[in-house]
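Let us work through a complete example step by step.
Step 1: write down the sequence.
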Amino acid sequence: MRVTRLLSAALSLGLLAVLVAGCNSGPTGKSSGPGPAAGGTKRILILTNGESPFWDACRQGLETAEKDLNLSQAGLTAALEVNNGTEEGQLERLRQYASQSDIAAIGVSVTKEDNAAIADQLRQLKQKGIHVLTIDSDVNRAKFRDARTAYVGTDNIQAGRELGKCAKMLRPNGGEYVSFVGFTTAQNAKERVQGFAEGAGDKFVSKDNMGDELDRVRAKENVRNALINHPKLNLLVGIWSYNAPAIVNVVEEEKKRDKVAIVTFDAEPQAIERMSDGWIDAMAVQNPYMMGYESVRLMKALAQMDQKAVKEMLPKMGDAGGDLFDTGIRIVVPDTNSPLKPEMFETKDKNVKGYTLTQFKEWLEKYNLKQS
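Step 2: predict the structure and record it as tokens.
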């Protein structure tokens, strides 16, 4: 019996040595090509829904986290990979990940919340021992919550409500509006549109919610068609980051600024510039930098089975809504000549903060960002 115990202990120590050796730190690299990285290093990946300057800030957050959290010492690297903007492209990427042995965790911005094939592929990744998060845009939580461990990103319903409040203050008598977005089927798009309607109130009527499938030309044409088809519009709402410059460009071309208020999500460089010029009345700005940073922090904790760190980030894990890590929202308003003031949007838990445009630019400069 004693010999059996000793043999069992030796085997356990041998297995532990193999596991530790498999996690030895290696060179930190940004490439995330196929096959295991040098030295047995495991990869943490973020897969986007498409291509947008929005993801540049996320990548910066990821890279900062990689340094701050000493991923190389943990035998990990982090990288952001860009999907081609289609459900099929995202599904193919996920299938590729399932065939690779060096991936520790992935965070996915899901292109369509109801895509059962994507949810199934996420489940298969989990079954292989890969930790799975959603970031920025979640799966349909009612159907596919089990397909990922947690969501890191914006509380999109709350963010939509805050932008709706802006509309109510800008147009107290209400009116007609059209919203513009990339994918109308994405979870973040649906929730923002829903939240906006709730925040704006019953005096506003939605005439359309127009998707462009990430086609920048179509994004502008949608705005142009909305102005033609709905001549009583007095409000235009941009739901994804590039919709803001698309709206402004068309409104300027059509000389309609005196007819419509413009409220948008996110802050691409051109949108920041156009608010400075008086073309955007309010921006509900997410924090993709922190999405990148906090996603890496959580994926590292999961990969290392660091339950203390996981509990710190998700203290109510297991409760309803306890698997959501909110990266917050900022309402950015013009410095002058606006009925909107930053203090109108502060919340007790600080998940919503108000900024003037100048204050927001200072925040960007602090983190060496060009957009958010």
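Step 3: interpret the result. Residues 299 and 314 are 12 Å apart (CA to CA).
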